[in-house]
Specification:
The structure is a homodimer.
Chain A: E1 2-3, E2 13-18, E3 30-45, H1 53-64, E4 68-77, H2 83-100, E5 108-115, H3 122-134, H4 141-147, E6 156-164, E7 167-176, E8 189-194, H5 200-212, E9 218-219, E10 229-234, H6 250-270, E11 278-286, H7 289-300, H8 303-310, H9 316-325, E12 336-339, E13 346-352, E14 358-365, H10 369-376
Parallel strand pairs in A: 4-5, 8-10, 9-14, 11-13
Antiparallel strand pairs in A: 1-6, 2-3, 3-4, 3-10, 6-7, 7-8, 11-14, 12-13
Helix pairs in contact in A: 1-2, 2-3, 5-6, 7-9
Chain lengths: ~375, ~375
């Protein structure tokens, strides 16, 4: 596997991002990814009970349709807690974009991020569509990436390539951070594109596995947003014979996808609000992977632990306390806690539970005065 | 029920607090409460898997013995994660204090708060015992209260009186805050004393109920310490006919106890690390009280919510997000969110779930830059 030095769209994909006037700042706020040919798709959505209208619509589309050709995304407004009007607006985005692209089927996904509880300025969005579509280009991924950002401090993109079943295939991932910082701002969005030819089931399974070990293994403030979406589109333009879950190269693809997801997830942590450090927490010798992950999250979500890391103190008492909350039976002498040097940008905590042979890794950031400032003085 | 203007020990109780040299600062760090006659007792302890040695010992005593005569408490060292030596030291505190008080049985409880993972300076404690016992006095509750404090900014005491079964009885509560701020510092400790004559079962039940609605309904940082203890001693010196759970006056006693516990729990929140506001969260129209409390805690433990309150912004999007994490099926239009004026010291959030007719209240504090400072720059 090789990493492209510059973000690179796979064969057959185009992208664009423009300012449609949704954000008051005038910054880019409307983006589109389009595949010239039909794609297979898989997605993972938020489990927050109040999922936003675009999430409902995209889930619906994924259930109904077999093939897709892209995704339209706006930032600046989450279209969440917007009732029937919000749902109607999300559908209008899908329909109008499909029509503008001359597609027979409504097979464009939709995603939104931004303020909760205000109606989308749908006319602005519809009015900007012709310009958005006109500007689609095979080198437009950067513009798209910018258009989905909210409070991100830097772009989050990566592209890799490798040979699968004799053909060179490209995997390109773009995401925006989990920042929930402006009043009612939300969401982590991730879009992964590939020209691989792959069976739907195999694609779904791979995404589920990769997300579990990446996006679902990070915690910035323990909050899950109403709009979280991870979407993968595979258009088959690399012209390989179709990849199935039983193929030898499936593992190769899975490790590529894991790499892309983990890389993006870590950039989200790095860009966590006010974060100065990324903290890797390895939990070993658990009875199950789930148990290891649960303990990892108890530590990762402990404000006391996160502030201690900010203060560069290997405060193992706070780790003990967080592990103890799990209620797991662990003997004092079996619990091993190990810190790496804490004066680095990336720090590592190893915790061994002495209960079994399963492990899990979770990532978080430190808790800093800047977090409070960002999250309290946003008006 | 009347509130004493000054903290007041019930009949037959004495207390003292001194400096034994456990704290480097030289501040008071060893306290004793003693009843001249035998008491019935009830207690609630931490559920953290790594419960400290004194918690293990006190649990053991409560199981084994029927009557008790007091409690010895040290601050500055939590005697937690201290293995067999720690356990031995906690027992030595019990034994030596019982002996010094000329008691036949080992019926003095023990509690500790402070640094985790260091052995108690047991010789200092034993050496200070004669002085501690000599100084016991019916007006010594203030000294005791000081001796159990760690990072508390103010004392947390209250005494109330009322007539139960024709006799005036007094209920006196003292506690220390949940601050976990010094490296490996821990714990909420609460001691409640009464001269009421009450059956053991009735006492246990009342404490369980009162704690559920007070100490177990507050959250400062969502962390439960290794040493948390709430203990009640009832010595019967008011000479009322014994109170049972079936008596008409039982409800009166229960409401007194609830009042004392909630009052103390709220002072803990008020003294939360760096807190500028105490936040009362009322969750209404839930299917069960447990469900209401769970939603309340999801909100109370949300850093995004707590920082918004610090910033005095009625950010209902963050409430929506926290409620949504519960996974409960709630229709958007059924969720009602209501903020009181946020520029006050005590603010109130009302959330209505539209699912049933049960309610619960939880308390928390705002999350401020001072919290980060206290918890990262303690060295």
């Amino acid at each position: 596997m090789k990493i492209y030095s510059k973000t690179h769209l796979p064969l057959g994909f185009k992208a664009n991002g423009i300012s449609a006037g949704i954000k008051k700042s005038g910054k880019p706020d409307l983006g589109l990814i389009f595949s010239e040919v039909k794609c297979r798709a898989a997605a993972v959505f938020t489990t927050n009970a109040f999922m936003a209208a675009p999430v409902r619509v995209s889930k619906d589309l994924l259930r109904r349709n077999k093939f897709f050709q892209g995704v339209i995304v706006n930032s600046g407004n989450a279209n969440c807690f917007t009732g029937q009007s919000g749902l109607k607006n999300a559908w209008r985005m899908v329909e109008a974009t499909s029509k503008m692209l001359d597609l027979k089927a409504k097979n464009i996904f939709v995603a939104s991020t931004g303020i909760i509880g205000r109606q989308l300025p749908i006319e602005k969005i519809l009015g900007a569509l012709p310009r958005l579509v006109r500007g689609l280009s095979a080198s437009g991924i950067d513009k798209f990436s910018q258009s989905i950002q909210t409070t991100d401090k830097f772009k989050k993109e990566i592209s890799v390539k490798a040979y699968i079943k004799g053909k060179e295939i490209t995997l390109c991932g773009v995401c925006k951070g989990a920042g929930m910082i402006f009043p009612h701002l939300a969401t982590m969005l991730c879009f992964i594109l590939t020209d691989l030819n792959i069976e739907k089931n195999a694609l779904e399974k791979a995404l589920r596995i990769a997300v579990a070990d990446s996006f679902n293994s990070i915690s910035i403030d323990g909050c899950q947003s109403t709009n979280d979406t991870v979407l993968i589109l595979a258009n088959g333009q690399a012209a390989n014979r179709i990849l199935t879950g039983k193929d030898r190269d499936y593992k190769k693809f899975l490790s590529m996808l894991k790499f892309v997801c983990l890389n993006l997830a870590k950039t989200i942590v790095k860009d966590g609000e006010g974060a100065t450090k990324i903290i890797r927490i390895d939990v070993h010798h658990a009875k199950s992977k789930e148990e290891a992950k649960r303990v990892g999250f108890l530590i990762a979500n402990s404000n006391l632990f996160k502030t201690a890391i900010y203060g560069e103190d290997p405060n193992w008492g706070r780790v003990v306390q967080a592990v103890g909350v799990s209620g797991l039976k662990i003997k004092e002498r079996d619990l091993k806690i190990n810190f790496s040097a804490l004066d680095k940008k990336e720090v590592r905590l190893k915790v061994s539970l002495g209960r079994g042979n399963k492990s899990a890794t979770v990532y978080t950031s430190d808790l800093t005065p800047a977090y409070i400032k960002i999250n309290s003085q946003y008006n």
